[in-house]
Amino acid sequence: MTAHPTTGFTSPELQGRETALKPGYMSGFGNSFETEALEGALPVGMNSPQKINFGLYAEQLSGSPFTAPQATNQRSWLYRIRPSVKHSHRYAKVDKGFMRTGPCREDTDVALGQMRWSPVAIPDEALTFVTGLRTITTAGDSDTQVGMAAHLAFVTRSMGNEYFFNADGEYLVVAQEGHLRFRTEFGVIEFGPGEICVVPRGVIFKVELVDGPARAYVCENYGGQLTLPDRGPIGANCLANPRDFLTPVAAYEDVEEESFLYVKWGGELFMTKIEQSPLDVVAWHGNYAPYKYDLRRFAPVGALLFDHPDPSIFTVLTAPSETPGTANIDFVIFPDRWMVAENTFRPPWYHRNLMSEFMGLVYGVYDAKPEGFVPGGFSLHNQMMPHGPDMQAFEHASNVDLGPVKLSGTMAFMFETRFPQRVTKYAATLPELQDSYIDCWQGLKKHFDPNRREPK
Ligand SMILES: O=C(O)Cc1cc(O)ccc1O
Ligand SMILES: [Fe+2]
């Protein structure tokens, strides 16, 4: 496997070398990349010559309208053994299992309120990334390209001659247990707990296990692509830095055997049989491609003297809407960090929010919920539903001596959207749904005393 000579990112050369860059990846966010698995496969200076080296076909994959402004225009050119159109016969609708797509208003008896689930155990049955995808919430409408879905993915079996693409949105996959290998049209991405992988809408891939059964949280973005947030007065550095995003170098399969291509389109699942592997892209260039990111590379910026800033300072990626500052999705993390604020209630404040908040915990302890919110579990604080630290966290944070404290070994995250999130029937009927969640605030005491003044 060799990358394009001009990029310098050739995987064999990097193998075994102590380098910031992992073998097989190119660094940067939203770059115009170019990479070839066979030297000379990329046409030079043009996209579509009359004939292409090695008898390859040229194909454009557009992630934005052709006419999108330069800053949001996304497309890649793929040089492949056969064009994708040869990768499909007639599509047949197949059982979509527990996959749901917004708008989805399933009849559930679930009462309005704050919700939390214990981790759902990885099932014993054989599940691929496709059959093991279980939708927890949906928001907005995939047809109008607004909103999102939050899913759990259980993977107990690698996909062999099965491949998949999602026409309804892009996937942001947050590994929680076990490593996953995404073999995509663009190359191979391997990642595990603490890392994320983003697969843009329409990109064909299959998922393999690396070290045993895996569980992941997945955000499906129906809207415009996830991008880096503007840093404003923070300046040119910190938070998620572009160089830490890794896109794979080209890698292809030249496999002539019957394969099954699954397609999620319009909220339904379809399948078509093809005669060969669709991962036959020998070279590609462009800025529309999958990538991975290690969340531990996130450089947090926070309160240096007093008060608790809004969690938007921990935004890793954002999918903007047409309204400035009102995201279709913000992907926010709560990583290791020092707490140093003086005379401050340090955990999240009590709040009610226009945006709805789906949270998960990859590992460690979340400071607002030391009990009950455990790795692999998840919670939903929907539009305008009040929430905040549980009684135990409130009493502790209100009375503890405020020296510098490091929150270590922790990684919580939030999928935050401007839309209300509708809970699926699957999620509403899970035995892991915690009936007693709201009791965590029941013990909050009345401390009010008109004569009590805190010392200045
Ligand atoms: O609800 C939560 O736990 C997430 C959250 C964290 C925080 O520091 C401030 C606001 C917020 O919604
Ligand atoms: Fe919140």
UniProtKB/TrEMBL annotation:
Protein name: Homogentisate 1,2-dioxygenase
Pathway where it operates: Amino-acid degradation; L-phenylalanine degradation; acetoacetate and fumarate from L-phenylalanine: step 4/6
GO molecular function: homogentisate 1,2-dioxygenase activity; iron ion binding
Binding-site residues for Fe cation, renumbered to this chain: H351, E357, H387
Purpose: Involved in the catabolism of homogentisate (2,5-dihydroxyphenylacetate or 2,5-OH-PhAc), a central intermediate in the degradation of phenylalanine and tyrosine. Catalyzes the oxidative ring cleavage of the aromatic ring of homogentisate to yield maleylacetoacetate.
Domain spans labelled Homogentisate 1,2-dioxygenase N-terminal: 25-295
Species of the source: Salinarimonas ramus
Entries under CDD domains matching the protein: cupin_HGO_N
